[in-house]
Each structure stands twice: as C-alpha cells, then as structure tokens.
UniProtKB/TrEMBL annotation:
Record-stated family: Belongs to the RutC family.
Leader peptide range in chain numbering: 1-22
Name of the protein: Endoribonuclease L-PSP
InterPro entries: RutC-like_sf, YjgF/YER057c/UK114
Species the sequence originates in: Gimesia panareensis
UniProt key word DNA damage: no
Length: 398
C-alpha cells in the first residue's frame, strides 16, 4: 500500500505538470518541506537563471527587510525573469537557495512553502554563503522547464536591461558538465582570468563554442571582491550574451574555482555513444577515480536530486555513507544509478572530512564513471550539526 501511495503521488504531480509534448515529474514530494527528493524532466528546453538577489529591479538596489520578505521578493524577481522566456515558477525542476546565515534558513524555508505550496515542489538545495550584496540575506538560482513546445538548436541568452538579471536556454540535447577548474594566481582578478582561459581550452577540446555556454558557478574568496570577479568573467562575452553566473563564498587557499554547463552539438547518427552519459579527460589533465573532468549527458532527460545530508549526526564515515546510501536509493527509483551521475557539487563545512570523503567515494563510484564534480568548503550546509551536503544531477540508464 505504501508503494502504491508513493506511485500515485508521483503520477498526480506528473499529471499536474504535464504539457502537450513533455513531462516533468517530482519524486516523493513533501507538503511539510515543500520539496521533492528529485525532479525528473524529459525532452524539454531548460531555463538556467543567474543568481537572483532581493532587488528592487527598477532601482537596482537590495530591498532591506527580513529573510522572509526578501525570499518573497526573490521569487517575484524569478517569476518576472522566467516570464521573459516563456517559463514560470511552477515548472521549476531545481531550486538553489543561498542564505547569508544558518539561523535564517528556517524562515526562508517557511516563506518558500507559503509561496509555492501545491504549485510546485522542486528538488532543492540550501547553502549558507555570504552574498554579493551585504544587504542581501537570501538569493536563488533555478532550472525551470519551458511552458512551450519550443525547440532550439543552440543556447539562447536573455539579459534584462532593467534588472541585470540573466537567463539562458539550454537546448534539449547533449550537455557538458565541466568540473570546477582553478588556476593559482596572486589576485582574484588574475585567477579568474586564467581560470576562464583554461575553461575555454576545455571547451575547445570538447568541440564546443563559447556562445553555447549556459551557466557558470564560481566558488571564490573573498566575496567582497565578487563584483570584480564578475567583471572579469563578463569580459569574456559580448555584452548582450553575458551568461548567467552564480557566486558562492568558499574557504580555500585558491581565490576561485569555476564550473561550467554548456550545450554541445549533436553527433552524427552513426557516432552517437551507446551510453546516456560519457566521461572525458581533456588533454593535459589527470584523470581521477572519484571525479571526472567532464561528463557529457548524451540524452535530453535529467534527474535533479535535492541536496542530501546525513540523516543523523555521527563520525565522518557514518555521515558520508548515510548521504551516499540515500543518493543510491533515490536515483535508482528515478531510473538511474550510481554509474550515470553527470554532475556533483559537494559542500562541506569541516574540511577535515575530505580524507574520509575521498576514500568512501571509491566505494560507490565506478573509477571509470564518476561524475563531474566540485567540492567547496562553506560556512554551513544549512542544517545544524550537519557538515556535508551533496547536490547531484543524474541521467537515466536508458
């Protein structure tokens, strides 16, 4: 009976979110938390937004207020931006929430439930990070399915002149997830420039084009220089095609690490891989048994998993195994497995966990098929007494 109830819940959400030609399904949605264990989207153009702050977009300033009110304003801004590309809040498949302080997370969650309850329950990840504007208490970026049957062959980017918000449309098709890359330098600006140059070399190796970059996420320090890093990143693109970017503060000896999502051209029919995801190591880079330099989703379908932490506190090994065991169960139920993970982002609030984390990953990953990944030491993973958060994208086995 429990399994039947779960199935009916998934079917109900699927029916509520079905369009004429595509599907969005939410697995095990929770009315209590307002999120699902994962969201599955099939054959749909996806909108990727920049990191959206609680701005009065006509004035370009963060509106002071409590975390709940700022959350409401961020959602208004997201709805405005998504509307420009024929998407809505109610087709979000992944919601990434960045909160300035851990104690504000419950207030943000409650406002999200109030605003989105019974409308959408996406996969969701919360991270505590200082934000680009010190007045901002919360920011978000999303991945949302389009409401229309629109088909595109290359990335389309919309830059809103009034607000400065950005959204890129990812075609339904091959997508490269490029692991975070970092180049050492004396200043954040110099490191950003050299890292972007290295990413462009990786893109060239893949046969991709800068005009098809969809989203960049930068882990950097210090956040107070985030605008300078943004200026360097923007300098790599024409003004009207500046890509959506998210900034996360990390604690590292490296000034910045940047990961990339890019649409790739479709291969000839006779050269299409049999696998739904393939893994690459660009020339001059070293392969690793626990992460791939690049993972290429060869199909349009995506599985976005909500951020996973250990169910209970414990030693490092217990916490890590708990998160991975949850992941394995979720992706299996969604039609994937541990050999078809495309992208991982690992957030840790105690860097001492890294040794155990590296070892235990080898218990779960095929050394020839680990996901592309980034690992960032952050202020908090948003839940008291938790020190590891795993954020995953998978593709179906078939």
């Amino acid at each position: 009976m429990k399994s039947l109830t779960k199935l009916l819940t998934v079917v109900l959400i699927l029916v509520l979110t079905r369009s004429a030609s595509a599907e969005v399904a939410y697995l095990n949605p929770s009315a209590e938390t307002g999120i699902s264990q994962c969201a599955v989207v099939k054959n749909r153009v996806l909108a990727h937004t920049s990191q959206i702050l609680p701005l009065n977009f006509k004035g370009g300033k963060v509106v002071p207020g409590n975390a709940g009110d700022q959350t409401g304003l961020v959602l208004e801004n997201l709805d405005y931006l998504l509307g420009k590309v024929n998407a809505t809040l109610y087709k979000i498949v992944k919601l990434n929430v960045y909160v300035a302080r851990e104690e504000l997370v419950p207030e943000v969650k409650q406002r999200l439930i109030k605003e989105l309850k019974f409308k959408v329950q996406p996969a969701c990840t919360f991270v505590v990070s200082q934000l680009p504007d010190p007045q901002a208490l919360v920011a978000m970026d999303v991945v949302a399915a389009l409401d229309s049957d629109k088909k595109i062959s290359k990335t389309e980017i919309y830059n809103d002149n009034v607000s400065g918000f950005r959204v890129a449309l990812l075609p339904a098709g091959r997508t490269a997830y490029i692991s975070g890359q970092a180049v050492k330098a004396d200043t954040l600006e110099e490191a950003t420039k050299k890292t972007m140059e290295e990413l462009h070399q990786t893109l060239k190796y893949l046969g991709g084009s800068p005009e098809n970059i969809v989203h960049l996420k930068a882990f950097l320090t210090p956040m107070k220089q985030g605008n300078s890093a943004m200026d360097v990143i923007d300098g790599f693109f024409p003004e009207k095609r500046r890509v959506p970017v998210t900034l996360v503060e990390w604690f590292s000896t490296l000034p910045i690490e940047i990961e990339m999502i890019v649409a790739l051209p479709e291969p000839a029919a006779d050269s299409r891989p049999a696998e739904t995801v393939v893994y690459k190591t660009p020339t001059g880079m070293k392969a690793s048994p626990v992460f791939s330099r690049v993972a290429i989703a060869e199909v349009s379908d995506r599985i976005y998993v909500s951020g996973l932490t250990s169910k209970e506190p414990g030693n490092y090994s217990t916490r890590i195994h708990s998160a991975f065991d949850q992941l394995k169960a979720i992706v299996t139920e969604a039609g994937s497995d541990m050999q078809h993970l495309a992208k991982a982002t690992y957030y840790v609030s105690e860097n001492e966990i890294s040794g155990d984390f590296g070892k235990i990953r080898q218990e779960y990953y095929n050394p020839k098929r680990p996901p592309a990944a980034s690992k960032a030491t952050v202020k908090s993973v948003g839940i008291p007494n938790r020190i590891l958060l795993m954020d995953m994208i998978a593709v179906p086995v078939k």
